[in-house]
Amino acid sequence: MPASLLSSTPRLRGRLLVTAATAALAIVLTGCAAVAPAAPASSPPPTFGHIHAVIPEAGGTLLVGTHTGLYRVDEDGAVDGPLGDYDFDLMGLTDTQGALIASGHPGLETPTELGSPNLGIIRSDDTGKKWHPVAFTNDEDFHVLTASPDGQLYGIGSTSPALRVSNDLGTTWESRTELDAVDLAVTTDGTIYAATPEGVRTSTDGGASFTPLGDAPLQYLLEAAGDTVVGVGTDGQIWQRVGKGEWKAIGSATGTVEALGLSPAGDVILVDERGIVALDDDATIILPALSSP
Questions:
Q1: Averaged in consecutive runs of 10 residues, what is the pLDDT profile of the chain (293 residues)?
Q2: Where is the signal peptide (predicted)?
Q3: CA 286 to chain centre
């Protein structure tokens, strides 16, 4: 994969259609039985469009930020959503301290108070049922957005290359150094990893300055959990670094990776040409990609 990928849109794009199985409803009444209404033979699959983020949840489900809203996908590939019936395009999405923080663009039915043509920073405190605007409403679109384990938010908006930092769940932001990064990740010790066209760079002073990480493969997506960082290399490899150790290849992608997730237990989830994939011994496909109509 050419290094030019790093100079294109931060969240690399593709199309993914998904199917959700329908379940028959059984009704059991004490002393008698009722016939359940027949479930439809099939239901139209929701169209995700681009997938920009995937967040593993406790219990094995995934939150999936897409071109058409926020969805929840379980281990069997069943899909619920769009959550809250919001149809916005979530270009950036992260979670911290029980809140979801997002950015992007409104859909046709997105409430006007969330912003247009850009959502700025929006927040949900109930896992996507309700969203409200908190900063940069109408003005910014954050493709690069992540949270550190201590709750700080880091992002780069569409109007400036400045790294911005928030300590209050996105309400106020402070600008730090300018950074040509397409993705960010933060480990427990506060080290910020930035994927840039020149290679991975790190900061240990809260984003005031960055230095090259010379032994790192060229990567365009990064995620962190605890002291572990995983990334997607332009060579198609999935790379992992634990603490200050060496980078090790732990798997490979099929085509371009649209989104990358890492659970606190170290489970790697990615979205590539196969669909939504759990990177384990068998590269288990949670939700297969279907051909575009």
A1: 42 33 26 36 63 94 96 94 97 96 97 97 97 98 96 96 97 97 97 97 97 96 96 96 96 96 92 93 85 41
A2: 1-38
A3: 16
